[in-house]
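Lecture 7, part 2: worked example. A protein chain together with phosphoenolpyruvate.
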Amino acid sequence: MQNKRKTSGQVEASASASASGTSAGSKGRDKPLVCGNWKMNHNHFEAIQTIQKLAYALNSDDYHHVEVCVHPPFTDLRSAQTVLQADNIPIALGAQDCHSADAGAFTGEVSAAMLAKLDVTYVIVGHSERRGLFGESDEVVNAKARSVLRHAMTPIVCVGETFDQRRAGEAHEVVSQQLAGSLDGLDEAAVGALVVAYEPVWAIGTGETATPSDAQDMCAHVRARISQGWGSAAAAGVRVLYGGSVKPVNAADLMEKSDIDGALVGGASLNAEEFARIVNHRLYAT
Ligand code: PEP
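Predicted complex, written out as structure tokens:
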């Protein structure tokens, strides 16, 4: 797969995002971003082991071509941070969620301020499991994304339609609405520096994957909608990931598409060897 080169518009977008202090961890569209969302799996001992195995499976050339991030559960973050730093492993640390307030009486919650102290770079907000199982609205997702930006980390804002919505021909409109609500009020530079993950709900954890052309179609739609709402520099800079049953066997075909800038991987990221093969999709491209 050819890496997608930055256009001058994208360079401009990332420069202006850096200037506004919103681009921590943002490497731009010239490097695919592959994130492993471990969900509620792996305790902190298993997290250390998985990261060490992943580091063993990847080399400096791999990191040169692909930006890699792991998103362990909250209880693993400190251990993961320690092993990444102690062993000098160039894998970014991510979180799976955060609360929108910095501190307060929110039993069981974790703030973006706390995540920033653990050297977290990327924070997933609005994952469909949070939206579906915990009733998170676009308004809540928006508040969380703002909080992540306030603490100089990069939000990965998830959007995606259900099977029924796709069958009813509503997929594009649903994604447009989620973007409008989740990114409401953010400026062009902030949107240009963040990450959007298009994850059709029917493809998450099901083994069903969107075809590369359907995934490309929706990722292009995300970029077009961002261009309309937040400007062309935002559209040129924003990284759009595909997520939903990404595996070593389908990763290369998905990521060669022009509007797909990487992958958000759930189940297949729990196994270091399998995840490393997704990171190294370029070696398996046909
Ligand atoms: C996810 O949880 O974001 C995801 C895409 O899961 P899976 O890869 O297991 O479908």
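Residues 1-26 have pLDDT under 50 and may be disordered. The chain has one domain: 8-20+32-100+109-284. Keep this in mind for problem set question 3.
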